[in-house]
Every structure is written in structure tokens, then in C-alpha cells.
Specification:
Elements: H1 2-26, H2 28-31, H3 39-60, H4 68-78, H5 82-104, H6 106-138
């Protein structure tokens, strides 16, 4: 279908733009530096975006060049895109830990709020009792 081709082109443009912005943000030298702890991910992302751009160029020139072996190899490289998901799953693990820690804090938080409400209530009762006695003495 045509809409899938359009979506593929849009995703390629978005991934290429994201990679370009990351290179600019991290500075080109640091992006490829061996001291960068995300160097392997940067190389993988660059390869995936490059292969996808080459694949789109091959598909555009498909009417001129018919080389099914190269096209099959490029389609095989599309499967490597799944590795991008591994990177995202790593962040979900951290998110899960944060959500579970916040959820486990709700019970003590409710007890603390109940205790605070009790202190405010008792303080208001004592203040009301004191003011009532003072007003009764003043009259």
C-alpha cells in the first residue's frame, strides 16, 4: 500500500533528523569518541539510518536498476531495526523501578497525611477550647 511507503519515508526522515540533532547536541567529536559510553548505540543508529536511506534510494531507482540480491540484503538489514527497541526497553526498566518506588510510598504517605490531619484537628480543638474559656471569662 502507498500509505505504508509514505509512513516509511516519514519515519526515515524523523530518524535521520533525530540522529542529526544528536550529533549536533553531543558535538561531532564526542559523538564518535571512544570515551562516549553510548558509542555502540550511536554506531548502530547511524548504520540503521544509513541503510534505510540507501534502501529508499534503491526503491526510488527501482525502475532503473533491477538487482534483487542487493534489495534482499537491504530488507534483511531492516530487521536490525528491532535492535533499536532493545535500547528503549532499557529505559522502560528504569521507568518501572521509579513507578514501583512511587507506588510503594503511597501507603506511608497516607499514614503521614492521616497523622498530620489528626494533629491539625487536635490543635484546633485545643485552640477552640482555650478561646471559648477566654471569651467566657471576658464577658
Amino acid at each position: 500500500p502507498v500509505w505504508m511507503s509514505v509512513v516509511e519515508v516519514l519515519f526515515t526522515i524523523m530518524f535521520a533528523a533525530e540522529l542529526f540533532l544528536r550529533v549536533i547536541a553531543a558535538s561531532r567529536i564526542w559523538f564518535w569518541s571512544r570515551w562516549n559510553h553510548e558509542l555502540r548505540w550511536n554506531i548502530l543508529d547511524t548504520l540503521l539510518v544509513s541503510f534505510n536511506i540507501v534502501e529508499l534510494l534503491v526503491l526510488v531507482m527501482d525502475s532503473f536498476i533491477v538487482n534483487l540480491t542487493a534489495l534482499r540484503a537491504l530488507r534483511l538489514m531492516r530487521l536490525v531495526r528491532i535492535l533499536r527497541m532493545v535500547r528503549i526497553v532499557r529505559f522502560f526498566r528504569d521507568l518501572r523501578v521509579m513507578v514501583l518506588s512511587i507506588a510503594s510510598c503511597f501507603r506511608p504517605l497516607l499514614w503521614a497525611l492521616l497523622l498530620l490531619l489528626l494533629v491539625v484537628y487536635l490543635s484546633s480543638l485545643i485552640l477552640l477550647q482555650f478561646l471559648t474559656e477566654e471569651l467566657a471569662r471576658g464577658e
